[in-house]
Amino acid sequence: MVGGAPFKTLSVVGAGAWGTALANLAAHNGVAVRLWAREDEVARTINLAHENTLYLPGVPLHPDLTATQSLEEAAQAEAFLFVVPAQHSRKMMAALRPLAGKAPPVALCSKGIEQTTGMMLTQALGEAWPEAIPAVLSGPSFAQDVAKGLPTAVTLAVANASLGRRWMATVG
What is the Cα–Cα distance from 21 to 115, expressed in whole angstroms? Predict the structure, then answer.
């Protein structure tokens, strides 16, 4: 452990390669992880075969990692990783806000800005879910490397040091 306890429950919003890799890492760190997937095929293969055959083929996933297509189920978490494309992040933040607990830690893991507003994702989070406690997780890294447990490095930016330690214990 890195000085903080990992979150007990985590929802990863976005089941592409990067979201799946981060969810798998957190599950291996003892976190109860629910991975929200838009596609039925992705959720089904993760739950039945423990593999994301569409976005991260050939990588076995932790058996306790579960996928869902339900936002209500995804909202039942202590903390959230947002790993959906930047253009869809605000919509997902706004959809989860009324379903989730108050002031949850939310780590933004997607690169880019909103095309329509020119805002960074932290700004969009501030508007769509102002109670959320933001963090930003960014590479350089590759989903395949993270999923296979190869040495990688990422940067985590968060204003609160103890919260940063919890994020590190969760996905570090």
Answer: 26
